[in-house]
Structure formats: structure tokens, C-alpha cells
Design a protein that fits this description.
about 150 residues, alpha/beta, Rossmann fold, 5 helices
Length: about 150
């Protein structure tokens, strides 16, 4: 028999359209490796959170603006996707909190150390996606210092 668990991203289940206890949750998705799935993970987590009733936003810090292009093609108004340079991340996160956003995902570019550091410092949680391949696993070790910023 397989045992299943309900996994909640926050300490307790939330009523629809409410912020989690403590306000805005900030999650940075970063990797030095291109093609690791950062944008795919960020937008899918935002859609899943939105479907659960958590107002969500993606901050697209990547100059390539893939998350912004995805939002434009998708045509939906939520989750909110906002392209912004790394130097404006804190200000945009503040605006998101004021607008009642419960979860902000910060999508970063590969090979952008400064932007990744800014995103990691602004985040409550850093997620480093990785494919199960040798070069990808080697790249993860070069990202491990992002977890020790505070």
C-alpha cells in the first residue's frame, strides 16, 4: 500500500485569496547552468499556488525575459509576471506585498552572479533546479554558496 501525504507549502492550509502568516513568501529559483529549468519551475509553481488560492507573482530578473514571454502568450492575468532588473527586486517585492501577493518567485538568469546574489538575499528559500546529468550536478556545487548568505 502506498502512503500519500498532503504537502502544504506553508505552515498550515490557508483560506483562498489570503496571504500566508507573516506576509509575502519569497522563493528564488537560480542556477549558474542554462537549461536547468529555472523558468519552467518558477512559472509552474506560481500557477500551482494560484490554483490553490494563493495570489502569486513571478519576478522575471532574466534579461532574456522568458517568463514574461510565457505570460504574454498565455494571456491570463494571474499569476502576475513582472520583468524587472535585479537592482529593483526589493522594491518590486514590496509592491507585491502591498498588492496582497502571497508567493513571489524570483526567476534568475544563468551566469548572472550579481542578479542571483540579489535574488538569494531577498528570498526566504532558494531552489536550485538540476537535471540528473554529470555537468548539471557539477554546476550545482558551484551554486551551493547561495544558501549561506544571511
Amino acid at each position: 500500500m502506498t502512503k500519500t501525504h498532503n504537502i502544504h507549502p506553508f505552515p498550515r492550509p490557508l483560506a483562498r485569496n489570503t496571504q500566508p502568516p507573516g506576509g509575502l513568501r519569497r522563493l528564488a529559483v537560480l542556477s549558474r547552468k542554462g537549461g536547468a529549468g529555472k523558468t519552467t519551475l518558477a512559472v509552474n509553481l506560481a500557477v500551482a499556488a494560484q490554483a490553490r488560492g494563493l495570489p502569486s507573482a513571478v519576478l522575471d530578473v532574466d534579461p532574456q525575459a522568458s517568463a514574461s514571454a510565457w505570460a504574454e502568450v498565455r494571456g491570463a492575468t494571474s499569476p502576475v509576471v513582472r520583468h524587472c532588473p535585479a537592482r529593483h527586486v526589493e522594491r518590486v517585492l514590496g509592491e507585491a506585498a502591498e498588492d496582497g501577493i502571497a508567493l513571489a518567485l524570483i526567476d534568475t538568469a544563468p551566469h548572472a552572479e550579481g542578479a542571483a546574489l540579489t535574488a538569494a538575499r531577498a528570498a526566504d528559500l532558494v531552489v536550485i533546479p538540476c537535471r540528473p546529468a554529470l555537468f548539471d550536478l557539477c554546476a550545482v556545487t558551484s551554486n551551493s554558496h547561495f544558501g549561506d548568505l544571511r
